[in-house]
Amino acid sequence: MSFSITPRKKKTYLLALLCLLLLAGYFFMRSFVTEPTPEKIQIGFLTPLTGNPLCGKYMTQGLELAKQNYPSLFTNYEFLIEDTQFKPTEAVTAARKLIEIDQVYYIIGPCGSSSVLAVAPLAEANHVLLFTSTAFAESISDAGDYIFRAATTASDETPVLSQFIADTYPSNKTGLIYLDNDAGISYRQLLTQQLPSLGNPVVLSEAAAIPETDFRTVLSKMHSREVEVLILATLVPQSIAIKRQAAEMGLSFVFVTAGISSENSDYLDTLGNLAEDTYTVSMLDFSDATLTTNIEARRFFQSYEKHYPEDIPTRDTVQTYVTTLLLLRALERCGDTVDCVQQELYSLKNEQTALGTISITSQGDIKYPSLFMKQVQNGSFVKVE
Asked: Do 155-282 and 41-152+294-367 fall under one CATH topology?
């Protein structure tokens, strides 16, 4: 019996062989093709790299430390950093770019109450979640349902400041130099009500424009009004200038600073011995007892000491660190669904962070366990017992 391939069978075999070769070629080429990675969720980061670069420096530190300590949390996210120049108009321009061009739905920042209040309507109208890590004005609490903040408010701080002054320097005449923006005005309104009710008259309050650094005339006025306790609710460079110029003029005041001028290495390093005895209100507690019981605080503090061994943690750094982690963890639970992330943040209660156990109020404000006074002693900020 003979076997032969008919032309029809030959054609069938050739087609089958061709299909096999094409299939083999497909799998061969596929082995060299990388699967496309999922598109990263973009997060805006509004900060003053100019105008108030210290705030920009501290906020960036917080972001970097969060990334160092929790790298896996950052895998699916890309941060778009924009310079606000510490100006409300520039903050709005930067936010508009993030929202309308980059189409982000999550923004950390900006620094400064006036910038936050300028950006808030834009964020609110577009259902963009805005989480500021450093802004103190009272009105931010009512800025919208998508507006959150990690900083204390003026109403959190001023009762602590006022009571401390009344207890430690009873009946002393008090003066106030406050930043001429929404945050500074909040401090002025509250302090000028609280201190007189406790027996400490506020005999003079003066606004400090941005970026004013010559306060000799104001200090002369304070001296002529016999001010004994001088409260500073100003930017760090302004507080440094005020303390230095008072010393140059031979004027002596008890200096008490609000959260805007909170503890930091720049204040200590620039002023040296002139920084001694300054009081400030604080919620930064990295004592041995806290580091033993709070793993989040310990992780942050150890990382900070490793990366910035010459500095001390500032509020802006720690608050930005906490803000970043809270937002990313909410995103991990929700995915890229802004309303879910919003509700996750509102539902946070008794959450352990590097700043202690916190909760978020119905107005989007973080509430901290306690505030207390510190004083510069031998070049360090030490808790007043």
From this structure: yes
